[in-house]
């Protein structure tokens, strides 16, 4: 669980490549939503303002997901380091007991 939130925005005037990227993401999400059972409401993309809002919403989800993955990786690395340290300090009997507990 994260204690922080992200906000996404951009400045400047989107060029054709920016607009294509935004529409690509919106189209992919709308395809996913259409294939859902039951189908979900598509992202609006009729106006430039709707495209911007829909694209920023999807970018925000991507950032949230990336952050959650980084947090999970950091926690996993921390646990692995603790296990390695404990394993190297353990006796053969403790290691055998730990393996038995993990594989039973």
Give a short overview:
By secondary structure, the chain is mostly helical. The protein is 71% helix and 0% strand.
- Give the helix/strand class: mainly alpha
Quickly count the helices: 3
Beta fraction of the residues?
under 5%
**What is the helix fraction of residues, given as a range?**
over 70%
The poorly predicted ranges are none
Secondary structure topology:
Layout: H1 16-35, H2 48-89, H3 92-103
Helix pairs in contact: 1-2
Model description:
- The protein has 104 residues and is mostly helical.
- It has one domain.
- Helix content is 71%, strand content 0%.
- The mean pLDDT is 96.
Key structural traits:
single chain; 104 residues; mainly alpha; 3 helices; 71% helix
């Amino acid at each position: 669980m994260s204690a922080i939130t992200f906000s996404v925005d951009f400045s400047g005037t989107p060029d054709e490549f920016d607009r294509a990227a935004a529409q690509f993401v919106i189209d992919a999400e709308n395809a996913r939503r259409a294939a859902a059972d039951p189908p979900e409401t598509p992202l609006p993309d009729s106006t430039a303002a709707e495209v911007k809002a829909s694209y920023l919403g999807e970018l925000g989800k991507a950032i949230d997901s990336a952050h959650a993955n980084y947090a999970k990786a950091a926690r996993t690395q921390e646990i692995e380091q603790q296990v390695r340290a404990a394993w190297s300090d353990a006796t053969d009997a403790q290691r055998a007991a730990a393996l038995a507990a993990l594989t039973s």
